[in-house]
Amino acid sequence: MKFFEHDTVKTSRTFYTDEKIRNAKKNIERFDRARKEKERVVQLAEEYLAYGINNLLTYVTQQNLPRSYSVNEMKGCPVCGKDIDRFGNYPYIADIFQKPFKLQCPNCQSVFPSNDFDSYYKSGLDENGRFHYEKADPKYLVNELYPDKPSDWCTDNGFGWVDPEGCKTKSYSYVYDKEKGMVFKETTVGDNRYTFIAYYNHWFIWMTWQDKTMVTGAISALRDAYLYTDDPKYAKAGLMLLNRVADFYKEFDACIYKWEDNFRHSGGAWGKIVGSIWEESVVNQFAKAYDAFFPAITEDTVREINAHPFYKSNPQAPNTTEDIKRNIENNILYQILPEVKNHRIRGNFGMHQESIALAALVLQNEEYFRHSIDAIMSFSDGSSRGIGNIEKVLIDEIDHDGCGNETSIGYNGIWLNTLSTIADILRGTPSDLYKNIKFLKMHNLEIPSIIADRYTLNIGDSGHAGNPETVVNINPHIALLQNYADVTSARLLDLAQRVKKEKGEEGAFYQNMFVDWEKTNRNIAKIVEKHGPFRSVSENYSGYGLAKYEIRNEAQEPRSVWMYYGRNTGHAHKDTLMLGFFGYGVFLNPDHGYPCYTDGNFELRNWTGNTLSHDTVLVGEEPGNNHVVGIPHHYDAKESVGVMDIEAPLLYEQTSCYRRTAITVNRDGIVYTVDLFRVAGGNDHRYVFHGAEGEAQATGLNPVAQKRGTYAGEEVEFASEEYDRKSRSGFNYLYDIKRDPSVKGSFTVDWKIKDTFKVWEKDRDVHIAITVLDPPDEAVLAKGQPPQNKPGNPKEYTYLILHNKGEDIESQFAALIESYENDSAVLNAEALPIACEDGSDAGYLAKAVKVTMKNGRIDYILNAIDQSTYVVGNGEFEFKGFLAIISEKDGRVCYKYANDLSYLKFMDQELVTEDLFVTGTVIDFTKESSLDNTIVVKLDTDVCPSKLFGAYTDIETDKIRNGCYKVLSAEKNKDGLYELNIGDITLIRAATGDVGQYEYNIANGAQIRIPLSEEERR
Fold first, then answer.
1. Angle 716-717-721 (CA atoms, 0-180°, nearest 5)?
2. pTM, entire model
3. HSE-up of 361 (CA within 13 Å, CB side)?
4. What is the pLDDT averaged over residues 227-250?
5. Cβ distance 68 to 265 under 8 Å?
6. Share of the chain above pLDDT 90, in %
7. With 474 labelled, which of 29, 260, 606, 853 sits at a CA distance of 20 to 30 A?
């Protein structure tokens, strides 16, 4: 046996503790779901044993056989093309026991490759089981499945088949380069290469995402069967496989199989067995398996390994049990940290840090454990993609709402899940994450994204296009519940349980066999009984960048309106100030969700993740700048009115104003939103709105169908790569174009919503309609597709585009948006004449809207974003300030709402005469990490502190972050200063590098404005 750098010091299991094993066996004894899980795992393990450990060892492939997560995502299946996409991102199926190295298209049922690669592979194995291309018999590289095709058609020697017909047209794409990152280059050969064997090697030998895989899946199944049964036969078989993997693991380097040659790896140009991002999922299984199998490393295991023909004269054959331990530890577990440093293992934040911590725990080497934990906790390069940096990333990248910088609930959930595993490993050590305020706050990350008490918004790269799902990160909440009896975690777990039961499935946390289910159920029930179940609330999450207005009317289903103004980088989309609607159990203008693929493909860059496919405004033809979070100037959530007024001043350099004000009125069971999107600067403004899947009818437009082509022009084909290479607009992804270049007045587009995801028990007549109050220069109706490789996704959406063009223009896109069932409650909506006090044009700064309901009520919405005095109509209204809503019925005022106003007059009656706002200066604030944070301000006017309760601050900042904080309580101190309590919302932006030294979102001396609101029913 060869020399090993580290000697083994492991004496017992460390990950699978006695408590975890007792919990699993207790669950199996008391819960039918646990018994079924044990039966499933044991049956799967028996299938692997029946296939034979000797056969499985044959398929422990080595570095010289390529891996790839796709066959050809550009062209699809060689027979049915892109029709395969409807079966998902990774659609091919395989029967690993009956047909090794064969893939089948689930759409056309064709089998690939056409040659007998299994025999080719076996013919190339030497006496030690290593594969050599020069030894393999070329007679097995002939098409034997498709006699009507050429002899080399779809044959694969491991490096794929290149379609010569496709190569007649050159192609170019963005590819990953180690040194330069994303580069644009010719990819003709790669785009026409079908990597059948590399795909099989990736998914059906090494990864664990499929039902059965030859190596990693077998090891995992044998591991769990051993843990549940204590039967050593599973451990011995698993150890033989794991030891065999250790023989080869150091040699692996996915990087040599190039992206431009169509060998696709998560992480682009980096990886080991698989791509660098997913390698963690492989090595974590190995580390856990070694811990589980450890008691079974006996002389019998040594003899069984040496009895295999591959070890008869193999210098890697173990002589003792210590040799097996040293082989697995040195060649797998001790490789993880250095390979993270080499970038071959490097995932989203928390992933590789978890792998390092897990390996250190399993190795049971105290010195190495301290070294590993120092590596993952300490500052290295300050990046969330760096080697460690946990302490700094928690400060810098976790916003004050507990969310990471990846926007998507799924990807931010990776951060929480991986850190939760690390936290359990570090509990009680000097690096205990349960003492870190930001880590604890991360357990709130689902809350901003949940609307209507249960449904998760699919903002950014997440979910299907409009599928009403619920996302709760189960294991972190169980851990926090166990450690702190956390109320929020109990409520979220209860929500996940209820959603599962409603679908006829068993409890959500039953996926973790090593948790005491009975105790967990009892703890959840106790907390929920005392505190009530989870309910989503109206709130402005100014750290994450999401404002929500939750509508709960008696005898009506929950509705929600929200605006997203957070990050637009990473796994986010270019969707700043996107406005969303939910009602009747469905998303009414759903986002596209997860893209076709998350590499550098044009569809993601220019369409799915781009501005044009989202309900916001595109300035020019390019997406805006990278953006962290917008600035909320106003937010309020009353029972009858919801207000969101948010600006993104840094998004477009050519604009002096990019601001959206959404005012939702909820009275008499009637709900509608007045949407005012103001843009100043630039030469092209395009306001975009789309409904969910369903037929759209336009009233008041005279659209003329474009004969062919796309929104990019009649001569530009759908998804044209040539167009994509020169433009980021995404115009070539909109088709069936209908234009009205001379809109005469207001008009309406009404979508009849299709129940795409079968939510309703019976057919319903649900609509969302937009009434555009002022004619744009051009109105366009077009079709656009959400990703078509996500099973169940809608086929297409209908888009409305309002286009203004000119030179350095100013636009105020004003619309009324209403969702309804059967019949609209709105009779008419119109813009009223409005002017400055001196008679000059109000321009884009102010708006007056009149909405007449069918029940006779008339609402007037008056809004301005400056401090001028405005006159409406013939002087019926006069106001100064942000917002007034007046409802009139039967000739009398029945409701009044005012927000941040100085003056309001209606029909010679003065309704507001005193300032509904306070201003002042920030004197001090909490500058350390704390669960109790305070802002001390000097106000320009005296105000009763109770009036500030529930208000939101608008503090001047550098505009990269905002100064919006909810005042939970306020008091006036002995110095006459006001102390504003903002709870556990930290004001720290980043660590500067020195211990305890920070940058902050606000500064002493900053100006503060606190809008106030009032309402009156008469």
1. 90
2. 0.95
3. 25
4. 98
5. yes
6. 92
7. 29
